[in-house]
Amino acid sequence: RDLGNKYDEQFEEEEFSEKDFTFSALVGIEDPLRDEVKQAVSECQSAGIFVRMVTGDNILTAKCIARNAEILDDNGIAMEGSEFRKMSNKEIDAILPRLQVLARSSPSDKHKLVSRLIENGEVVAVTGDGTNDAPALKKADVGL
User: Fold this and answer.
1) Can you list the pairs that 28-31 forms with residues at least 24 positions away whose Cβ atoms lie under 8 Å?
2) Which residues lie below 8 Å from residue 75, measured CB to CB, with a gap of 6+?
3) Is the model's pTM score more than 0.85?
4) In b/e form, how buried is each residue of 68-106, taking b as 16+ CB within 10 angstroms?
């Protein structure tokens, strides 16, 4: 996440304008992975579990996090929910073996992904931490 700062030395509240400011700072904030994440992902993969990351984050952030967590590799597909939801079931089924990251996803995107996986004979586990995850959690074979 980035935060910019600007100011105007001549600022008077009555004459406030969003023009002629001087850019003074840029601050970057990172929420690092927890120490146990890489090991947990690795253990899942070693057990034959295909780990996917479905997130509301933007695609660049999602790809960075997924690479750091060793979820996204050079052969994997990362895409945004807006692209995913335009795809037919046949198109989705074709990319499922390589789909590792779904970014800017909506609850309906998560539900559609789980549905396609189940219809293709996969056993699906979903983790979620909010009400927006409820449809996918309910549809999954295992919901955490």
Assistant:
1) 28/1, 28/2, 29/1, 29/2, 29/3, 30/1, 31/1
2) 98
3) no
4) ebebbeeebebbbbeebeeeeeeebeeebeebbbbbbbe
Running DSSP on this structure, what letter comes out for residue 41?
H
pLDDT under 70: residue ranges of the chain: 1-23
Q: Where are the alpha helices (DSSP H) in 6-125?
A: 37-46, 59-68, 81-84, 89-95, 107-119
Identify the three-state secondary structure at position 4.
Answer: strand
**Widest distance between CA atoms in the chain:** 66
- Which phi-psi region, left, alpha or beta, contains residue 49 (left: φ > 0; alpha: ψ -120 to 50)? beta
User: For position 25, what pLDDT does the model report?
Assistant: 74
Q: How many CB atoms lie within 10 A of CB 33?
A: 13
At 22, the amino acid letter reads T
In which region does residue 20 sit, left (phi positive, over 0), alpha (psi from -120 to 50) or beta (all else)? left
- Calpha distance 71→2 (Å, rounded): 24
